[in-house]
Specification:
single chain, alpha+beta, six-stranded antiparallel barrel, five-stranded mixed β-sheet, binds zinc ion, Kinase-like_dom_sf, a-kinase_dom, protein serine/threonine kinase activity
Length: 330
Amino acid sequence: MGAALATCGVRIEHATAIGALFSGIADGDAEELILEVVSTAADDSRGVRPSGFKEAQQLQVNKLSTESGFEALSLRYSEAVRATWPDDYRFQASKRSWRASIAFAPDKAYVLQMATRAEERSEDAVKWDLEDAKSAGSYAHRFNLYSREHAREAGEAVDELPCVKVAAPVACRVVKTSFPALLPVGAYCTLWPYSDPEVRKFVFNGCQDFVELAQAFFHHSAFSSNGKELVCDIQGVEEEDGSLLLIDPCLLRPSKLTVGALLKGAAKEEKEREDLAVCLGPVVNVAADKFDMLHPKCTSLCKAFDPKRCTVKRKVGVCGLDISCGLARH
Ligand SMILES: [Zn+2]
């Protein structure tokens, strides 16, 4: 941290003491950071909490700080974790995260994420960040609708039913910066409407406490995608009413899988490898084992939509050969 900051000319003693990269105009410092919003595509989903920003809007960052509470955001990028996920940008490109305040909305806080590697700070890359948030938001919307309907049928009050929302990031381009090493001009990043200073993992690697709402959402997302997609790395904050606000979830999609990723699990015979490659269609092939680990038991809500818990396991590949690919175990 100290070395990185030294290279971009920030006063180290100041930054180390309070964890702030800079405190901008609030302290009368000369340092500044201005972002231009280039896409709000993630707002186009009914299960997201929108950013409130508009495309082409310029945002002056007033304050930027590292937060120990954001450690969870970077766990996905540890070597051990990356080795277990597909070889694609969303699972592999490590990012730095800061808490940011924006002059336009001083009463709120945001999370600014920038890829660590320069080649991943591109417009094409951040589109995937928005796409995953938007898709997760769509699954959240479906889940919330189902949850309300289920409660209504059970004669329960639905007005204050906790729900799942996904923070909708905007894609931004740096247009002015005092931190060319970390946040260079022209680089693309994401800005998430997320005010809480902590991010908690809900469904990540099977070691998390069992949070009913998060677990039911995890199962329902697999169910409502017909077993084709899985919302992974479910993290965020539990709000006062019990609702969850998620940040930076990852979508495990068939199109993003690679054979190499599939084979990182157990060693397979050559014939089985060929069958696996043919069965790349449904994400469930790689997710089948993960599903049980991440979702060790069902919630009462799960039992209403998938009582036999067969969403993932029953699905077959595009080849239709659930037996020959050897992964569709019961
Ligand atoms: Zn379940």
